[in-house]
Amino acid sequence: MKPVTLSPDQIAHYHEHGYLLLGKVLTDAQVAAMQAEELRFRTAPIWPDSNAKTGQTMFRSQIQAYSAAVRDVGLNGAHVPAMRQLIGPNLIFWFTQFVTKFPDAASGKSEFPWHQDNGYSKGIEPATNITVWVALDVVNEHNGCVYVHPGSHKRGLLPHETKGESWHLHVPVEGDGVPAMLQPGEAVAFTGLTLHRSLLNHSDRPRRGFFMEYANANAVEQATTATPRPLVERSCVYFIDGQADLGRRTTPPPLG
Ligand SMILES: O=C(O)CCC(=O)C(=O)O
Fold this sequence. Notes:
- Strands 1, 2, 3, 6, 11, 13 and 16 form a seven-stranded antiparallel beta sheet that branches.
- This protein is 18% helix and 27% strand.
- Strand 8 and strand 9 form a beta hairpin.
- It is globular and about 50 Å long.
- The N and C termini lie far apart (42 Å).
- The longest helix is centred in the N-terminal third of the chain and has 15 residues, at 28-42.
- It is of the alpha+beta class.
- 2-oxoglutaric acid is lined by residues 97, 99, 101, 112, 117, 146, 196, 198, 209.
């Protein structure tokens, strides 16, 4: 498959609006492989919510630790050259997640409210990290596609709140945002500071998504705390290019 390389106009769009539709980044064979992996992870007995039900959303995180196929897509997918263009030469692949939104069936529970991904990690610096959200089904407003809020990344890291009993963080936002309506294998890329959400799945089938995150190899997380942690010290981080700066450790080395 032809690598995705971005034109100057696309790069300008990404920086101006905080997101970019990348087009098709997975081959049909890779889509089929990721769909098979999603099902394997969905039903794996090691997770307590296996066989999740109506109105629920299933999250399977850091799946590159369990799956060579997932790791290969993250390291060698057609989108990786675009990550180099946007993030630069010291590049890591550090996070993955399957997000399967089951039919809502009028439960009203399948919404994922407005948030910035960096709101969950309490700040990443430099905030050049990118989420590449790939559709494994046709996704649209009917079955709960992701919406992005153009330009919201320019507001910096926003305070995130919890609402009711949900563990979801959210930011109060006006406006509907732009729906990223995608075919299987197509992706939308957005910054770690871009507000995004998804609404209810009104269809009668699961809506399957798969996302990968990339960052500068020198990025630290929890940048709002006194002891920020280098992202490379997380488990299951893979280098794509370049190296980390070894001159500024901010946390003690791992034991052992
Ligand atoms: O896939 C979705 O519905 C949204 C997922 C999301 O925004 C996230 O996990 O941060």
